[in-house]
Task: structure prediction
Amino acid sequence: MNLKLRPCTNEDLESILFIEESSFKDPWTKNAFYSELCDDSGCSRCLVVEDPSCSVIGYIVYQKILDEIYVKKVAVHSQMRKRGIGHFIFFNLFKEAKEDGVFKIVLDCDVTNVEALRFYKDLGFQQVSEANRDGSLRLENKIGAAT
Ligand SMILES: CC(C)(COP(=O)(O)OP(=O)(O)OC[C@H]1O[C@@H](n2cnc3c(N)ncnc32)[C@H](O)[C@@H]1OP(=O)(O)O)[C@@H](O)C(=O)NCCC(=O)NCCS
Result:
């Protein structure tokens, strides 16, 4: 499939919300995404995946601070999963990280989210903490060590 990863715009927010609400039991609101788009610190980025018909089928929100990237959100449309779109998103992130001298990518994943944990492990992420109070595990990928 010919996929495109591009910066999110206000026009994408409804599509993102649809995916968000069907992916998470405690979804972000439209305002939460909007404030990421308006972040003027220059650290936050929100990218969407477009399929050949220009439909938004996934997204990632992350922050780049010095030599680290923290992934705040990532999701793929439920009907489009297990087709390599998640890998496409992360391979692009790894490429950007390497080009920008980022040392590691960090994220938190719910301990019950078995599918996502397997997905991250396959991408070379390693667990670096026991479960946090909110039931999430911290995972890290040291750029260059895997992938
Ligand atoms: C986690 C998530 C982003 C992964 O996205 P995805 O597009 O399904 O990811 P991929 O298709 O690249 O990989 C998923 C699995 O499908 C497999 N796969 C990829 N292409 C495939 C294909 N053509 N046929 C069969 N399997 C395939 C991958 O090998 C991978 O297997 P693994 O988990 O055993 O490693 C997605 O499941 C999601 O949106 N989940 C809900 C939101 C969420 O939990 N986000 C993470 C919060 S921390």
Remarks:
- The two ends are 21 Å apart (CA to CA).
- Residues 85-99 form the longest helix (15 residues).
- The first strand starts at residue 4 and ends at 7.
